[in-house]
Write a structure and sequence with these properties.
Layout lengths: L1 E5 L5 E3 L7 E3 L2 E2 L17 H5 L4 E5 L2 H11 L4 E4 L10 H4 L1 H11 L3 E6 L8 H6 L4 E6 L5 H7 L6 H13 L3 E9 L7 H14 L2 E6 L4 H12 L5 H6 L3 H18 L3 E3 L10 H8 L4
Parallel strand pairs: 1-5, 3-6, 6-7, 7-8, 8-9, 9-10, 10-11
Antiparallel strand pairs: 2-3, 4-5
Helix pairs in contact: 2-4, 8-11
The structure holds iron/sulfur cluster.
Length: 287
């Protein structure tokens, strides 16, 4: 892992995501190295984007900049984080996320945290103090460790995430579970989805879900797994299939209704999936 310290001019960025006013990303890049991660498509530093999972830039002066910004910016909801995992391993030592949360919450901002790491439990003292201003989501794509090891090679295992989310539920924090991305032939089976829905219901977590997003940068990453025979190009192609998406939406809605669980497609205003010609261009002669 290559680690570098950088200086930034801005800590809070306007967010284009629904329900968020700002985004705060303490790090550039993410050591969890999920093979489907499309955060790389939004990462300004090209060398980090193209070596995803192997390079991390620490925003060394983030706390200093944030301290100034919270005094002049309009209060709002801050997504922590949108293009990195705020609790990836380096956070244990750096504590930028922890300090940023403290500043944001002390200054009247709300925070919406999304992670795959139980390290968030460390900050429960701050989060419970501002219980009405915080929501926390865990991404759980599958509860099967063997599958997670392939698609999220360096992230904590799903069972560890599930345990951490249960602990947050016990603290009566506002929690949710993000089931995404759903990838054809990997985690789109009824049984796998059912396990996650049952777990969410047990701990009373709202459920959001999303499908594989085929950004060009993601295709480049997935291509190496197709070459190794781990994924098939047909499966990837299927992720843009409207009928497949429609059937899954129906399945998830029905499974959630059966156990009376609140569930929602994460991006209602979804753009059209990548077109076939572009997809073919990426795969033809390149594997
Ligand atoms: S944890 Fe999130 S940001 Fe990090 S690699 Fe995985 S999908 Fe990307």
């Amino acid at each position: 892992l290559i680690i570098k310290r950088i200086k930034i001019k801005q800590a809070l960025n306007k967010s284009g995501l629904p329900d968020l006013d700002y985004a705060l990303n303490p790090y550039v890049g993410c050591a969890h190295a999920c093979i489907y991660c499309y955060a790389r498509a939004y990462t300004r530093y090209k060398e980090v984007a193209s070596n995803w999972g192997q390079m991390i830039y620490i925003k060394d002066n983030l706390i200093e900049v944030l301290t100034r910004e919270v005094k002049r910016l309009k209060k709002g909801i801050v997504g922590v984080s949108t293009i990195t995992d705020p609790y990836q391993p380096i956070e244990e030592k750096e504590r930028i996320t922890r300090n940023a949360l403290q500043i944001l919450l002390d200054s009247g901002f709300q925070v919406s945290i999304q992670t795959k790491s139980p390290l968030v439990i460390r900050d429960v003292d701050i989060l419970t103090r501002y219980i009405d201003k915080v929501d926390i989501g865990f991404t759980i794509t599958t509860l099967r460790d063997d599958i997670a090891k392939i698609i999220e090679p360096n992230a904590p295992l799903p069972r560890e995430r599930a345990r951490a989310l249960s602990k947050l539920a016990d603290k009566e924090l506002n929690i949710w579970l993000f089931l995404g991305p759903i990838i054809p032939g990997v985690n789109d089976g009824k049984e796998q989805i059912e396990e996650i829905i049952e777990f969410a219901k047990n701990i009373d977590a709202r459920l959001y879900y999303d499908f594989l997003r085929l950004k060009p940068e993601v295709i480049v990453s997935l291509r190496t797994y197709v070459a190794k025979g781990i994924l098939s190009s047909e499966a990837i192609e299927k992720s843009r299939n409207i009928k497949w998406r429609h059937e899954l939406k129906k399945l998830i809605t029905n499974l959630c209704a059966r156990v009376d669980l609140e569930c929602q497609y994460a991006f209602q205003s979804d753009k059209k999936p990548i077109d076939k010609k572009t997809l073919d261009n990426f795969f033809t002669n390149s594997i």
